Amino acid sequence: MKNQIGQIIIVFLLSAIYQSCKNKDCHKTGECPPEYYRIRLGELKNYLWTLPGSYWIYKNSLTGDLDTQVCNFFTFDSIKSQGTLDNSKHIHVENDFIKRQIESSFTGFIYFDQTAISGPDLKSFNNGVTVLYKTLTNDIGVIKPLFYPFTDGLINGTGSSYTNCKGMDSTLIIQGKTYYNVAKFDIDQDDIWFNYANYPNAVYYWAKDVGLIKRFNKTENFS
């Protein structure tokens, strides 16, 4: 009888120890198995890829003024990072990213383009949305004029403005030229629009393998 009681106690102790180990939070002990993620730009890359020296010429539909925008700098790379919080130390992320610098001949402004980098401490990874930040010289303003996927009605924002994806046009003709696979983004307040105190509602049109082909000021009906 004593042997049976001893066996029962041993089994109970082993069960309790096992259950105690099982219930331990691996995030607190630092023993979570490593997780690896690779965040790629996907289709967004085809709308941003360019080379230094490339340029786009835009025409103001009201005044006829021409603005040549030149790519002064372009890089495509990846960056690796590891979580720093208890619940993310086991998470490793490698992000692809693009950085560009575009200079306007008309305004003299320099625009900095950079795709967002998702950190491992926020495992949501922006809910799978790849975003472009477009910033005016000296952080005068920043918008998100492009993001992927190109889902009609998908919204993203900066805090001071929000961008609504308006889906895709298979073709779009501008000044007699046909562009294909055009993604459209409606920004409620475009705070990098030149020379405006009250930021207009604007629409950005991006063509695959070309880039930004049109900015339309909805507030005052010109591009």
Structural class: mainly beta
User: What is the chain-wise order of helices and strands?
Assistant: HHEHEEEEEEEEEEE
Range of helix content: 10-25%
Domain module count: 2
Which value, in Å, is the CA radius of gyration? 26 Å
Gross morphology is elongated
Report the β-strand fraction as a percent range.
over 45%
Please tally the helical runs, counting DSSP H or I stretches of 4 or more residues: 3
Low-confidence segments, given as residue ranges, are 1-23
User: Distance between termini?
Assistant: 93 Å
Average per-residue pLDDT, rounded, comes to 84
The number of strands is 12
The biggest sheet, with number of strands, parallel, antiparallel or mixed sense and barrel status, is: 7 strands, mixed
Describe the structure.
By secondary structure, the protein is mainly β. It has two domains: 1-28; 32-217, no CATH class. It contains three helices and twelve strands. The chain has helices at residues 2-23, 26-29, 45-48; strands spanning 35-39, 55-59, 66-82, 91-104, 110-115, 130-136, 142-148, 155-157, 162-174, 177-187, 202-207, 211-217. The strands form two sheets. Strands 1, 2, 3, 4, 5, 6 and 7 form a seven-stranded mixed β-sheet that branches. The protein has a five-stranded antiparallel β-sheet with strand order 8-9-10-11-12. The longest helix has 22 residues, at 2-23. The protein starts with a helix and ends in a 6-residue tail after the last strand. The model is unreliable at 1-23 (pLDDT under 50).
